[in-house]
Amino acid sequence: MLDVRFIVEHPHVIKDDLKKRFKADRIWLVDELLEDYNTLKKFKKEVDDLRHKRNVLSEEVNKLKKQKKDPKKQLKEVKDIPGKIKEVEEKITLLEEKMKEKQRQIPNITHESVPQGKDETENLEVRKIGKVQEKKYEVKNHAQLIEEYQLADFDAGRLVAGEGFNYLLGKMALLDLALQRYGIDFLLKQKFTVVVPPLLIREEAMKGVVNMTDFKDTIYKVENEDKFLVGTAENALVPLFKDKVFKAKDLPVKVTAVTPCFRRELGAHGVDTKGLFRMHQFNKVEQVVFCDPQDSYILLEEIQKISEEFFKSLGLSIRTIAICSGDLGSKQAKQYDIEAWFPRQNAYKEVTSASNCTDYQSRPLNIKYEKQGIREYVHILNNTMVATSRAMVAILENFQEKDGSVTIPEVLQPYTGFKKIP
Asked: For the segment 281-295, what is each residue's pLDDT rounded down to a tens digit?
């Protein structure tokens, strides 16, 4: 979330940015925070005044005792002050919590390079990598194809766990694992540290990573427990350094994890609703970087390039998209998506997202760095290395032969142990 002092001192900046994001309906939050901040200052002054009064009265009591006079009146006032302080402090605590909830509803400040636009139709294509291979024959639906080869059981997945779950079998299971391991090896070469994180995290940690209001329909909550299933490894990796103070010389810190990801909302229904493209559970390799603020936009380009090189190495045609202001999530100051070409749909579809969240996440999680004796909040970036489900669909469509067989990308063959499906 944004620093409340910045909001109070620069309300016009926040309001202008909300308009840029097409979220003018949230401007009232800024005005209310201004009022809350002034009320908070009055409460804190009241507490300071009460403490000062207690000190003055204590001195009076001591003087009266030395003068052999009765300090009964002053003692009664002193005795009443702690209760009054407690009463005001409870008001402060309640008000600060309400202010935090309002702060969480105010998005990050967009970077000046973010294209202006209302929705995804106005996202900006930055570059294309690889040539689209036109198919002269009909490409089979990936779900139909792998069921024919008995490499997945979607009906059993629905029967056992419900819509949006499945069983991958044999070569498809190995292809999923191959993408995971290849993704990790790719990042090890880029000096990332591999982490095995918890898949269940507390609400306090989750609130530091995402806007719970924005994601209330997508996050799985464990009933009767303060636990949430991660929607991405980022949810668990970002709080890894909660309350940590890095030395500037140790930055950037780069971590990666491969985890199952759990999401309640399947998204818009399309031609491939049955299958791997949209699921409640899927596997993903994630990149998270903690860095000095002056380096964060350079590092955003670096981690974006890593994912581009990864998909290029698979032989897939991709394009990079700069997300416009109206399509940008609350935590992001800037975001890129990679879209891969899916020949059966005759379209590019999202496979990764890279974001610079600046200090939006580090502030509530209290993650800082120290430089020349001064402590500031780090900037935090995240990027999907590969969501294996969508990568597998892209492989099944792009490398599908006329007879329905699929050639495995050469870089994955040492990991799969086979060259073709079936």
From this structure: 999 999 999 999 999
Q: Report which DSSP code applies to 249.
A: G
* Class level of CATH domain 120-421: alpha beta
Q: What is the widest separation between alpha-carbon atoms in the chain? A: 108
Looking at residue 41, its amino acid is K
- Cα 408 to Cα 413: distance, rounded to the nearest angstrom: 6
> Phi, psi (5° rounding) for residue 127?
-165, 160
The pTM (predicted TM-score) of the whole model is 0.92
Cα separation, 319 vs 322, whole angstroms: 10
- Coil, strand or helix at 170: helix
Q: In whole angstroms, how far apart are CA 121 and each of 13, 20, 151, 356?
A: 26, 16, 36, 21
Residue pointed to by tokens 């090896």: 185
- 388-398 and 170-188 helices, crossing angle to 10°: 110
Rounded to 5°, angle at Cα 343 from 341 and 345:
95
Token readout for 377 is 């909040």
Query: Strand (E) positions, 248-315?
Result: 253-262, 281-291
Domain residue limits, the chain? 4-104, 120-421
What residue ranges in 305-415 does DSSP mark as E strands?
318-322, 334-342, 347-356, 368-371, 374-377, 379-387, 406-407
Q: Does 252 sit behind a cis peptide bond, omega within 30 degrees of 0 on the bond before it?
A: yes
In angstroms, the CA 389 to CA 130 distance is: 21
420, 408 contact by CB (below 8 A): yes
Q: What is the secondary structure of 60-127 as a DSSP string?
A: HHHHHHHTT---HHHHHHHHHHHHHHHHHHHHHHHHHHHHHHHHHTSPPPPPTTSPP-SSGGG-EEEE
* Omega before 409 within 30 of 0, i.e. cis: no
4-104 belongs to which CATH class? mainly alpha
Predicted confidence (pLDDT) per residue in 146-171, tens digit:
999 999 999 999 999 998 899 999 99
